[in-house]
Fold:
Amino acid sequence: MAKAAAKVPSWISKILLPEIKSIVKEEISSEVKVLDARISALDSKLEERTKSLDSKLEERFKALDSKMEERFKALDSKIVALDSKLDEKTKSLDSKLEERTKTLESEISSLRNEMLSLRNEMNARFDSIEKRLPLIERLAQIESRLERLEKQAELGK
Structure:
């Protein structure tokens, strides 16, 4: 480039080069302005489309939110109804369990009383048998003597 600049006469570099630079700058500037205008137009179109899509999406989101809210309300009411049924059944089962518990406690108490009565009766009988045991032993001795005497009487005949 230095060789090319050396071959260019000085009047050209002083007069024409600044003029050429100015022309190139104008051309580039006008092209940049055209490109800026095109980009601005595209930005505008893109912004319009984005706004349109945003509004459509917002409508869809609102519709979905509304449907979800309805479903949540329906589910909440079902949950409340199920809770109520569960509470009723729990109360019913609690009262039945309480009744059965009372019945069993009553039966257990009755059985205990009966068992105590039987135990007392058995103890009384055992006491009676223990008291009678000497009499029974004496009766057994008498019977055995009687048998011996009967055998002796039979032999003596």
Observations:
- The chain is about 95% helix and 0% strand.
- The helical segments are 2-7, 10-156.
- The mean pLDDT is 86.
